[in-house]
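FAQ: What does a ligand-bound record look like?

Like this one, built around adenosine-5'-triphosphate:
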Amino acid sequence: MTVAPALWGESLVLGYQRTTVVHGVAVRLRAGAVTALVGPNGSGKSTVLRSLARLHPVDQGAVRLAGDADADADAVDAAALSARDFARRVTMLAQSRPHPSGLDVRDVVAFGRHPHRRRFAPLSDADTAAIDRAMAITGIGDMARRAVDQLSGGELQRVWLATCLAQETGVVLLDEPTNHLDLRYQVETLDLVRDLAEEHGTAVGVVLHDLDHAASVADDVVLLHHGRVIAVGAPADVLTSDHLSRAYGLPIDVTTDPGTGRVRVHPRGRHHGRTR
Ligand SMILES: Nc1ncnc2c1ncn2[C@@H]1O[C@H](COP(=O)(O)OP(=O)(O)OP(=O)(O)O)[C@@H](O)[C@H]1O
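The answer part, i.e. the structure of the complex:
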């Protein structure tokens, strides 16, 4: 079944100063699905994701959001929405985040409610419930009153993730959300990403470096190389030995896990084949 995209970029041309680094890329994020952006360093993943979040200017092309299907409304140009309306629909966990000081964890998570609140208004019951829920599912409930400037990188990562979730948007964009996280929280974050799509119908766009993570979590994969899409589609169709070897510039074998049916990626370094 083809599901209409919730947010998409059309023919995106993006750059820095006068240098174009993304050359006509199309990305479609479907409601209830996880779309992983993968590719080597510098291939344009973060720039594309940031443009979808309106954090990077679009030189050519457009970012669009689905209209209200019930009202049969047309798609809207993301650039035409007010900052507040856009923030009610799209949130992003960026790679570089502010380092707030003098605030506790719960205060920071409460920032996620800003698009839903009137200025200076106290937190509503809905705000409190959203904050509690976001903290519970990211496992930071017991850190509520800890000062954020005293947290480890991984703990802070989960606080920012909770802040995004508290925003309760239909589109969630995550730039390397497993960075800094230990194995357990990597797995829990990927589980959370799947939950967002499957249980909440969220359209999730996620930049991942670990291709096995991408294979395990994504419905759609977009493989970028030098600012262009090499392949897009289901993980097994995109994460092939041919595509990956071309993109990463080294031999990469791909096998299928007999238990899960998912692809597994095996890069062949110079010491490949070492037995001990
Ligand atoms: N602030 C900047 N000023 C100038 N060029 C930049 C800037 N940020 C990124 N670039 C360049 O834009 C290109 C795409 O970068 P981008 O960060 O989008 O890639 P990426 O695929 O996310 O990389 P990585 O995996 O290393 O995070 C790269 O060539 C990079 O050097």
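Follow-up question: can I read anything off the structure? Yes, for example: Residues 16, 21, 39, 41-47 surround adenosine-5'-triphosphate (CB under 6 Å).
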